Amino acid sequence: MSLNSEKLQELIRSLRDQKLTVGFAESCTGGALSAFLTEQPGISDIFLGSVVSYSNEAKEDLLGVRRDTLMQEGAVSEAVARQMAHGVRRQLKTDWSVAITGIAGPSGGTTTKPVGTVCIAIAGPAFEDSRRLLFSGDRKAIQHASVDYSVNWLCEALDASLKSRQ
């Protein structure tokens, strides 16, 4: 995977310097964010694990996503991404979490949620936010863009959190 390894090193350094842990809930990326992080040796001090929840049932059973949210908003929504982020953070007892849910294609898109629609949420101490994004390209490009975006955004969130505590 040829993602921004400089940003990944910044993320790892930030988590270690702040003595924080992280976990992921991944759907459309199928564990790619976890694989990207675990390519680094000795990562177990900051990365506690991930849940790859591809089906709605897995999102409900493993992450505590509410069925009514899935039915009303759809699996690819900011509301579901936020519940996934909170669920994995609770299950793995991490300080921070990232959740990714989207439509990587080539099928599955609709007029309101075209292929490339990805919702990402981050949860941490006194922090919660989600974003709906639209990436382009083939399935692999959309997955890579989702992972790259998540790493960059988590770096920003950790930096902002650190500055707010100083």
TrEMBL record:
A Pfam family recorded for this sequence: CinA
Q: Which residues form the CinA C-terminal domain?
A: 9-157
**Protein name in the entry:** Damage-inducible protein CinA
Lineage per the UniProt record:
Bacteria, Pseudomonadati, Bdellovibrionota, Bdellovibrionia, Bdellovibrionales
